[in-house]
Specification:
With about 200 residues, the protein is an alpha+beta fold. Helix content is about 35%, strand content about 20%. The chain starts with a helix and ends with a strand.
């Protein structure tokens, strides 16, 4: 009987010290998996701020994309939903030829479904396609950030039961928002896409 208590005590000590036992079966293995599970993290919106001017113009031309949102604020992320996210991210990243709006005479133009465009065009197209598949618009927000090199950038942030996930035209990987190289600036309100908040 005392050997049983020694084994449990030894296993507990190994878990606390971060030493992995040779076999992870039973309650000890389960506890270790809980300790190593990634934490779920959500973006915290701070103060109201001005929307990007190009987004204001986009809303005037596409009021349906900017009307008050409906549906759940958070999407339960099943394996089926994960597959949809991956397919939409990959297909839109391949469908749009990357070009920079910076040199256009009419300035930065945000658009959906363009053959060529820059980061926000990818994000808006992904948002519309996910809504067409039945995703809640409240869980799909555009965010503005800076890349590691300091370039302005826009992405789609999807609020899921696994945290806020980022769909970025620079990669096929869908990552938690804290796992990207982005320095966050502002994000849309989930309730009203015309409203933006600092991050």
């Amino acid at each position: 009987m005392w050997k049983k208590y020694l084994n449990v005590a030894a296993l507990s000590a190994m878990i606390v010290l971060g030493v992995e036992p040779a076999q992870a079966a039973g309650p000890g293995g389960f506890a270790r998996n809980l300790l190593n599970a990634p934490s779920v993290s959500y973006i915290v919106a701070n103060k109201p701020t001005l929307a990007p001017f190009a987004h204001v113009r986009f809303c005037l031309q596409n009021p349906g994309d900017c009307s008050r949102s409906y549906g759940a604020a958070t999407v339960a992320l099943s394996s089926y939903r994960q597959g949809q996210l991956k397919r939409i991210n990959d297909s839109v990243n391949r469908a749009i030829r990357p070009t920079n709006d910076a040199n256009r005479i009419d300035g930065d133009v945000w658009q959906v479904g363009a053959q060529s465009g820059d980061c926000e065009d990818y994000a808006l197209t992904k948002r519309r396609r996910l809504i067409a598949l039945g995703w809640s618009p409240r869980a799909l927000r555009i965010a503005v950030a800076h890349t590691g090199s300091g370039e302005g950038h826009a992405v789609l942030v999807v609020k899921t039961s696994q945290g806020d996930l980022v769909l970025d035209n620079r990669t096929s990987s869908i990552k938690p928002w804290k796992s990207t190289d982005l320095r966050w600036v502002k994000i849309q309100s989930g309730d009203n896409p015309r409203l933006w908040y600092t991050m």
